Amino acid sequence: MTYDQATTREVLDGVKASGRTALNAAEAKRVAGAYHIPTPREGLATSAEEVVRLANDIGYPVVMKIESPDILHKTDAGCVLRDVIDAPAAEAAYHSIRDNARSYDADATISGMQVQQQLPASQEVIVGAATDPAFGKLVAFGLGGVLVEVLKDVTFRLAPTSHEQAAGMLDDIAGSAVLNGVRGAPPVDRNALASLIENVSALVTDFPEISEMDLNPVFVSAEGVAAVDVRILCSFEPLVPRYRPSHDDILSAMKRIMQPDAVAVIGASAQDGKIGNSVMRNLIDGGYAGDLYPIHPKADVILDRQCYKSVVDVPGSIDIAIFCIPARFVAEVIAECGQKKIAGAILIPSGFAEVGEHALQDEIVKVARESNVRLMGPNIYGFYYTHQNLCATFCTPYNEKGKVALSSQSGGVGMAIIGFSRSAKMGVSAIVGLGNKSDIDEDDLLTFFEQDPNTEVIAMHVEDLKDGRAFAEVAERVSKKKPIVMLKAGRTSTGAKAAKSHTGALAGDDRVYDAVLRQCGVIRAKSLNDMLEFARGLQVLPTPKGENVVILTGAGGSGVLLADACVDNDLSLMTMPDDLDAAFKAFIPPFGASGNPVDITGGEPPSTYRSTIDLALNDERVHALILGYWHTIITPPMVFAELLGEAVIEARAKGIDKCVVASLVGDVEIEQACEYLLDRKILAYPYTAEKPVEVLGAKYRWARAAGLL
Amino acid sequence: MTYDQATTREVLDGVKASGRTALNAAEAKRVAGAYHIPTPREGLATSAEEVVRLANDIGYPVVMKIESPDILHKTDAGCVLRDVIDAPAAEAAYHSIRDNARSYDADATISGMQVQQQLPASQEVIVGAATDPAFGKLVAFGLGGVLVEVLKDVTFRLAPTSHEQAAGMLDDIAGSAVLNGVRGAPPVDRNALASLIENVSALVTDFPEISEMDLNPVFVSAEGVAAVDVRILCSFEPLVPRYRPSHDDILSAMKRIMQPDAVAVIGASAQDGKIGNSVMRNLIDGGYAGDLYPIHPKADVILDRQCYKSVVDVPGSIDIAIFCIPARFVAEVIAECGQKKIAGAILIPSGFAEVGEHALQDEIVKVARESNVRLMGPNIYGFYYTHQNLCATFCTPYNEKGKVALSSQSGGVGMAIIGFSRSAKMGVSAIVGLGNKSDIDEDDLLTFFEQDPNTEVIAMHVEDLKDGRAFAEVAERVSKKKPIVMLKAGRTSTGAKAAKSHTGALAGDDRVYDAVLRQCGVIRAKSLNDMLEFARGLQVLPTPKGENVVILTGAGGSGVLLADACVDNDLSLMTMPDDLDAAFKAFIPPFGASGNPVDITGGEPPSTYRSTIDLALNDERVHALILGYWHTIITPPMVFAELLGEAVIEARAKGIDKCVVASLVGDVEIEQACEYLLDRKILAYPYTAEKPVEVLGAKYRWARAAGLL
Fold first, then answer.
1. Quick check: helix, strand or coil at residue A279?
2. pLDDT tier at B495 (50, 70, 90 boundaries)?
3. Where are the strands (E) in B473-520, listed by range?
4. Are strands A572-573 and A548-553 parallel, antiparallel or unpaired?
5. Model confidence pLDDT, tens digit, residues B157-205
6. How far apart are alpha carbons B210 and B137 in whole angstroms?
7. For residues A499 and B635, what is the distance between their CA atoms, to the nearest angstrom?
8. SS3 of residue B386 by DSSP
9. Residue of B543, B562, B548, B568 whose CA lies nearest to B659
10. B690 in A contact zone (CB under 8 Å)
11. How far apart are CA A434 and CA A463, in angstroms?
């Protein structure tokens, strides 16, 4: 698509020159025309003859309206006529409207008669663009009209957006079925609508000074689209470019930071209770095998390690320096780190932006940029990288190695990760505190974890993305290889409260995060506990090979709850093929329910569980298995756990690795059975039907977004 | 409001006599008129003079439409004109429409010209009525138009509904703000709309043969309402009245059943592994102190108890008989129970409706009715009533006494209750299996629990309500005294798939359950785990005295997550009064955040937690307290738990009993801290910010519905 940028530039320059930020209707219409955004044909006439000429030009039917600053409620005054179908009707309408206007207000100023193409019966939608504080230029799409303004059924994409992405937006909204035609209406022209969205996204990308845009309403029908009202707002203030090192620079620094060969502890201390002491101890007790240099102005030896006055005095090279000194001393030591070519400064100290000390934080960032040192923090607990036995933190040592990397912006959430991970045997590759995110943020971490062979799943607690655009770009790439789970805290709008357009008012809204994260293939967790469970579960579950889910249960009641949960988590219960149905029936009592859920009934011995599980595992058409176990005397919890474990392990040995999750209900013995299963990498949960299905749903969401299904 | 029942009866009799089930437009309009349901003024004219006379009568503006069976798309044919504002315009329109009709189809039969009152600019809504399989007559209200048909933003009430309840429906829908006026529109006439709903509910109540009704669209504006299209469908099949014993009869039977002085076990057995043996053992091992009579055709003594051939041979009176015999023998023994004046038969056996043996089930119900014996089950695990040490079940003995009564339709869910209750130290008064619910159902249980001093909270797992109407009536009364939590399983519609109206198609829908349960003050749990947690938590939390919630946290990050959860659970964060804000500030570091959440920051000693907690507990303006604890070395988990426990217990001693819930994040020691707190009746959860707030939210929902807030 080629656009007329010159015309657009001319219009915007004119607006700027006149000291305005809003385009008038004519200007907006010119810009729309330059970017192939269709608007209805229309014009203003001042006599009956002109009206007829204009209407003939536009084509019938037309809508006619009085143009008068004194008549606000034109319809009430009888000054709007629709369905004007030919020239005589247009002439009659002209007189009729003028007469009505006179009798409504004899003194009204009448500047003419607006004649507008009457669009065919159609659906109203809204298309817009906004500038989000985190993500920059966005396009928005939603159903139009007053109802949807209230229901706020709107979706977003990063601009620029491809035609295909724009088309995807049409299916994103809750009311999307309207576009496919309901109550006998034909489907709308989706292609034209997607092109319109694409063109809007190109416009705001080409002209970043366009800060907000509303096409509201856009009429869309089977015949095409037209934006009835176009509103464009500009901001001519210069944009501050984001600091964005190259991918290679990020990666080489992050590798040295996350897997350092040598670590310095700034403010190391021999004194119990000091942070500089806790960090030293954690490094030593954690078993860190690289070089470790305590830095202290006076001490000679700390915890049996030779001490240096400054990093510059250390003979060997150093990868990271962990700061355990007060905020006011940080900047000068960062400069020394620069001299020493240290890759990263881990800034545990608080006392910066989080307490209002923005100047102090700006200063350390400035020094770090000049010194080519990356900053983690400040105001963090530090970080762990377990596969290097690295506990660069003042918290407890932690060494449950695993394949999940987690980050958190808050120390509280970091501690929840540590505790849950230990309690639920999750195992982690890294836990990273990001705190104020003065420099290193989620996209730097993603760049490292993307290539880290020790990391298979990434989970992030985020309060704000400093550079959502950079995050989205990296996340979209990484999520295709490794699942990314995000807990986005802070649901209230942080956006542009003073926005002048509908779309603009949605910038910074939680819905923007929702849509953009989905676009990037990031799995959003709705709660802290979900983030933790998803992180653990996504690592354990293999990638499903298809959408066919089968529920196998010993309790009909659990089957119903599991099926409900499948609906809630967008999982497809397989339509049971006749042969497989018959095969299941052969194992279950005549009153058991075949179909899906398969209800083997409660009184069955272990062999029935085992036979039906084997059947499901070995049938290629079944891609995932949800088990609903019911505690009975005839098949006690541990017997069930052992037979399920055996079945799955045997299947794995044959190369069959399917998603298997289990809900166990029963007396307290089921807790032990769940642990037993988890040790065999089978996700099992006690006293809940929903959690296993939610985790399976998260795996499916990821696999679909990554294009693996 | 008086209605013209005679006219309605006449119309409906006519419809029935003509063998139809649907009313035609004129009939529907007559019925609407009889029940004060406003419709637009309209008429049919066959000449220009008639059109003008009619339009003069109706009042301008009018809408004119061709009446022709051959012209389906009237607007496209130019055969609909709006905004006809006076007599000359009406005459012109008559000719114009006729001409257009001719040129569209010269051979079209034209039966006249419809002239209809043109309603003022207004909002479209839909009002309807349906007959739900569980709840009977319902009224429905939603926003109209194609969008809302897709978005299905509709709410329901049991008919008849009061004016006040009808008015409440207007606020129930997601798009309710539309009715208050948006984009400068004035608010609609809510009173007229509520009256319309009330009148519809009266109509379907007075004439139960009206099975479905749609007023779609209804135009509502500041000036009033009018139903543009009225659709009424009847079902003239006779209704089978429900079996409904009187309240006193239910209660006297249920008291004997739940708290029996003498129990017979039909099919008692000395043989290990038999159900009749498990039941005997559970009764004995559970410590049941009443009379216990094993019934067996041949045995003399079973487990040291004298055995009888039949209940009729037992010398003393008996309250309940627990059946452990095959299905085919059940009916005759029920008859014997009747002779013996036994109040209830507890039917453990399966093999009835759940396996398609409907006739067998119908038979036992018939015998039971004739014999005046209430039936629990069949196809159940039995029941527990702990305060009588009664384990009338083949499951394990269970004796954790408490104040929560639970019921389940499924054995699987029953086992989940038992396990969770033991593991989470919930304590129960009763656990009841309802299975096929051939007779005793949730409203019978509610009638008993209502007056049971050992029960304070009721939780129910329900797959289908056999008599939703009876349940709703009892639940509405009981929920005002004791919280009722319901897990409604089975989200897919079981309703009238073949319905002919929009509203009718929604009968049996999950949304109906949602709306009716809310109307009755029942707290709906969205998952099994929520039901269990709510049951435990609602019992522990006192009734809040007001809406002011304060979050007190040691980790800013937890504060954000807790605040998010408050938004999700409709909790109001108190706007902090200046004096209280200042009082908090006195205890926390200068960089801590006052306001609400109160962030005391992470490095604080126990005394800061204690002082701020005391402040919140002792300030009368604070009604509920959410604590976000963050594991630190300076205030370790057990130290926090002890200080919080102390503070709450001291406050309770002073008569201050506020809702206190806590989210603990940290290393595994927090699990022990949570248990410690729970033992002191302070709800505390590890690794989750959401659960404590959800439980607090449930308590608030209940208190609001019960009119206590």
1. helix
2. very low
3. 484-488
4. parallel
5. 999 999 999 999 999 998 888 898 876 778 999 999 999 999 999 999 9
6. 9
7. 45
8. helix
9. B543
10. yes
11. 10
Cα A490 to the center of its chain, rounded Å: 14
- Chain B residues lying within 8 Å of A567, measured CB to CB: 491-492
Architecture of domain B42-118: 2-Layer Sandwich (3.30)
Element spanning A187, H or E: none
The pLDDT > 70 percentage for chain A reads 97
Q: What is the largest CA-CA distance in chain A?
A: 103
- CATH C-level class of A41-118: alpha beta
CATH, range B247-379: 3.40.50.720
Q: Which of B151, B341, B385 is closest to B253 using CA atoms? A: B341
- The number of angstroms, rounded, from the C-alpha of B393 to the middle of its chain's C-alpha atoms is 29
Alpha-carbon span A707 to A476, nearest angstrom? 12
What is the rounded distance in angstroms from the CA atom of residue B356 to the CA atom of residue B472?
28
B504 to chain A, closest Cα gap in Å: 17
CA distance B438 to A156: 52
Residues 623 to 682 of B: which have CB under 8 A from any A CB?
628, 630-631, 633, 665-671
A463 vs B: CB within 8 A: yes
Q: Which tokens belong to A461? A: 């607690």
Give span(s): CATH 3.40.50.261, chain B.
400-540, 543-705
Q: What is the ipTM of this complex?
A: 0.87
Mean pLDDT, range B573-594, rounded to an integer: 89
SS (H, E, C) A537-559: HHHHCCCCCCCEEEEEECCHHHH
Q: What is the pLDDT of residue A499?
A: 52
The contacts of residue B341 (CB under 8 Å, 6+ apart) are B317, B372
3-state secondary structure of B162: coil
Q: How many CA atoms lie within 13 A of B538 on its CB side?
A: 34
Is residue B603 within 8 A of residue A366, CB to CB? The reply is no
What the block records as the tokens of B266 is 């039909």
Taking contacts as CB-CB distances below 8 angstroms, the residues of chain A near B145 are 147
Q: Does B595 touch chain A (CB under 8 A)?
A: no
Burial of A372 (0-12, 13-18, 19+ CB in 10 A): middle
* B551 touches B597 (CB < 8 A): yes
Verify whether the Cβ–Cβ distance B183 to A492 is below 8 Å: no
What's the CA gap between B552 and B610, in Å, rounded? 11
Q: What's the whole-model pTM score?
A: 0.90
- CATH class for the domain made up of B543-705: alpha beta
Q: Which fold has domain A123-234?
A: D-amino Acid Aminotransferase; Chain A, domain 1 (3.30.470)
Q: Residue A702: which H helix or E strand, with range?
A: helix A690-705
Q: What is the pLDDT of residue A89?
A: 86
Contacts of B421 in chain A (CB under 8 A): none
Among candidate residues A54, A88, A203, the one with its CA nearest the CA of residue B99? A88
Q: How far is B189 from chain A (nearest CA, A)?
A: 17
Longest dimension (CA), chain B: 103
CATH 3.30.1490.20 domain range(s) in chain B = 42-118
CATH of domain A250-379: 3.40.50.720
Chain A residues near residue B92 by CB distance under 8 angstroms: 92
DSSP state string for A369-420 = HHHT-EEE-SS--EEEEGGGTEEEESS-----EEEEEEEESSHHHHHHHHHH
Nearest 10 degrees: CA dihedral of A392, A397, A402, A406? -50
Residue A353's CB: how many other CB atoms inside 10 A? 19
Q: What gap in Å lies between CA A179 and CA A167, rounded to an integer?
A: 12
Q: Does residue B147 contact residue A148 with C-beta atoms inside 8 Å?
A: yes
Instruction: Tell me if the bond preceding B160 is cis, omega within 30° of 0.
Output: yes
> What is the Cα–Cα distance from A436 to A410, expressed in whole angstroms?
9
